[in-house]
Amino acid sequence: MSRQEKKENQFVYAMRLLKNEGMIALTIRALQKIQKMRHRSTKRKKHLLLLGDMDDILKADWSSKTPKQTAKKIKTPCTIAWVMSPPGESGGGHQNIFRFIKGLDDQGYTNHIYLYSTNDHPKTELVKERIKGFYDLDLENIEWLETGQVIEKGDAVFATGWETAYPVFNAPANKKKFYFVQDFEPLFYPMGSEYVLAENTYRLGLIGITAGDWLAQKLTKDYGMECYSYNFGSEKQLYEHTNEEKRKEVFFYARPITPRRGFELGLMTLQKFHQLNPDYTINLAGWDVSEYDIPFPYVNHKALKLSELSDLYNRCAAGLVISLTNMSLLPLELLACGTIPVVNDGHNNRTVSDNKYIKYAAPSPDALARAMDEVVNAKDAPEYAKKAAASVRQNGWEASVDRFVSAVEEKLHG
């Protein structure tokens, strides 16, 4: 086999792994391969690689007794510690975290950031610069949480992902312990160790504040977790209805590295839609898809800046959004621009938003394509788009931030 053929086979394997197991699994496999190459000559044993540090996981013995929170009342405003993976230059998950950190900051709270990762260790100076891009936040209290390190700062402490829940559980008992849950993370993995370890974090007795009601209902019913929830909103300064003319374009949130966004299902849907409406421009944004063999003409926008999205949405009559776990933030943002979201039907999505202008359809290419076809060919499309935008005009994030702060203060005082 030639070197070129080996490279092609490796690429096919990587894409199959990415599709079946996700970006996290692909990253871990890559790290394992690098580790194997480095240790081949010394014949050292492989290290097990997980998002969570194994020492922290082993220390968290939740199964021998029911975890309970301290009853100590804490005077507010106080210092709140956040344990999180290092943020990139953009990303919806961190954007949401910092939205609520900003809300607490505005109420006089001091926020202390603990960075936590088993594979990515950017310098804190770089992280500070990245954080400044989120809501003009200028946070100075940032440090790395090392393996086995006790969380000393903060009267309360927040976990923000399954891997961070273990060190939060291990924090001193006099701290209030919260869990900011944005999705059902076990479903990010095939059934295996990561699934179980992620699922177990809902049994640690942490107080959940969840993105939408679906997660709160699921975690309370299935794991007995105490949860508060907040409603989704859209950034009014970013998303606005500006185009009242007939639109001849559609949008798809294309994220092949994120299996829960249904990239393949979306492409099949758009192939059907293109057959029905070949004169419509199809826009793909969210990731660079140039390496994929896509069976219809499209515009590859790659990863756009937040400031660029409103203009794109305002050109589109419909926006295809696949949400296979928790609901995406996109449907309300699309509605704010007069773009009708076409979303896969399911309890997970309807529980989060029952806005009548969201076009729900069965999760099949045919049903989703027909729904998009109905949207773009509606006779009153411009007027309908105007009404859709008006339906979310009051859905800013202010009420959600207030709800978040109130939930925190209720538990700190209780």
Sequence-ordered SSE layout with sheet pairings:
Elements: H1 3-21, H2 23-39, H3 54-59, E1 79-84, H4 92-106, E2 110-115, H5 124-131, E3 142-144, E4 156-159, H6 162-169, E5 176-181, H7 193-200, E6 207-211, H8 213-223, E7 227-230, E8 249-253, H9 263-276, E9 281-285, E10 299-302, H10 306-313, E11 316-321, H11 330-336, E12 340-344, H12 347-350, E13 359-361, H13 365-376, H14 381-391, H15 398-413
Parallel strand pairs: 1-2, 1-4, 2-3, 4-5, 5-6, 6-7, 8-9, 8-11, 9-10, 11-12, 12-13
Helix pairs in contact: 1-2, 4-15, 9-13
Query: What is the name of the CATH topology of the largest domain?
Result: Rossmann fold
Task: List the uncertain runs.
Answer: none
Q: Overall pLDDT, averaged?
A: 90
Q: Which H/E pattern describes the elements?
A: HHHEHEHEEHEHEHEEHEEHEHEHEHHH
Structural domain tally:
3
Q: Major sheet: size, sense and barrel closure?
A: 7 strands, parallel
Span of the ends, CA to CA: 67 Å
The amount of helix comes to 25-40%
The helix/strand class is alpha/beta
Shape: globular
Could you please describe the fold and organization of this structure?
There is one protein chain. With 414 residues, this protein is of the alpha/beta class. The chain has 15 helices and 13 strands. It folds into three domains: 3-49, no CATH class; 55-233 and 400-413, 3-Layer(aba) Sandwich (Rossmann fold), CATH 3.40.50.11090; 249-391, Rossmann fold (3-Layer(aba) Sandwich). The chain has a seven-stranded parallel sheet with strand order 3-2-1-4-5-6-7, sandwiched between helices. Strands 10-9-8-11-12-13 form a six-stranded parallel sheet, with helices on both faces. It starts with a helix and ends with a helix. The model has no long low-confidence stretch (mean pLDDT 90).
